[in-house]
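Hi all, posting the design record for the shared folder.

TITLE: backbone redesign
STEP: 1 of 1
STRUCTURE INPUT:
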């Protein structure tokens, strides 16, 4: 079984990619909706939450954990590997950085939560892959609550996209990394604003491809059809968003963290 977790519904973008690539694989997804967003929390709190989230999916039977949260990937990956040494972890940042480095000639734009941007993880990864690329970053803290509220095509969302991304568009970045798994919900609007020449990159498909390549055993064997969506705070609103995004009816289970 594969475990995935995020601060909220954003990681469902990774779940959708997983279901497209391996529709019968067993998985458990945890969205920490009771404590979202992580992007404005201190590194210490993010690490604590990530350890608790990982513990939940591991206790549910996960043998491989995908950290479907950029903030947790940036701040807590080393702590997770130390806490659970017998379980492999994959973060979402490295696959996206690799794709951006391949597709860019001069500059890469990165948008994410404040915590992800302040961590510098994307700048460090991209510069290690191609030191000639210029990395331009922008924190977009309001995108997460807009997605959590289901306002993915609302006028206020379009206004915030213009406000946050005008500077990056004016600087003619070659590619734009959506450095938060919530942001692919806004990908069409962002692509339209940035223009067709900009490669808008989300890490969902890249991280699943990496997982299948590096840990093929996690996708083999007999499937029991156990595909569970869990939230730490459930509601019909969250079920509706999840159902719309995954293209199937979702009735999330309530997760109790210890």
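Okay, here is what came back for every position:
SEQUENCE:
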């Amino acid at each position: 079984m594969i475990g995935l977790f995020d601060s909220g519904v954003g990681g469902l973008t990774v779940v959708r990619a997983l279901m497209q690539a391996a529709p019968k694989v067993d998985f458990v997804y945890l969205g920490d909706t009771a404590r979202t967003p992580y992007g404005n929390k201190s590194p210490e709190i993010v690490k604590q939450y990530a350890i608790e989230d990982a513990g939940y999916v591991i206790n549910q039977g996960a043998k491989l954990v995908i950290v479907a949260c950029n903030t947790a990937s940036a701040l807590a990956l080393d702590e997770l590997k130390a806490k659970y040494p017998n379980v492999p972890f994959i973060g979402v940042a490295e696959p996206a950085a690799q794709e951006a480095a391949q597709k860019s000639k001069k500059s890469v734009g990165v948008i994410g939560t404040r915590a992800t941007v302040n961590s510098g993880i994307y700048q460090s990864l991209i510069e290690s892959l191609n030191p000639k690329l210029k990395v331009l970053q922008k924190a977009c803290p309001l995108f997460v609550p807009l997605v959590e509220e289901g306002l993915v095509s609302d006028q206020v969302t379009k206004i915030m996209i213009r406000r946050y991304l005008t500077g990056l568009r004016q600087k003619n970045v070659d590619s734009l990394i959506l450095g938060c798994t919530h942001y692919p919900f806004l990908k069409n609007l962002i692509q339209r604003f940035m223009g067709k020449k900009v490669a808008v990159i989300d890490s969902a498909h890249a991280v699943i491809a990496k997982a299948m390549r590096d840990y093929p055993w996690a996708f083999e064997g007999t499937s029991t059809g156990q595909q569970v969506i869990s939230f730490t705070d459930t509601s019909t609103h969250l079920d509706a968003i999840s159902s719309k995004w995954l293209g199937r009816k979702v009735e999330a289970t309530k997760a109790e963290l210890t």
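COMMENT: The longest strand covers residues 107-112.
Let me know if anyone wants the other runs.
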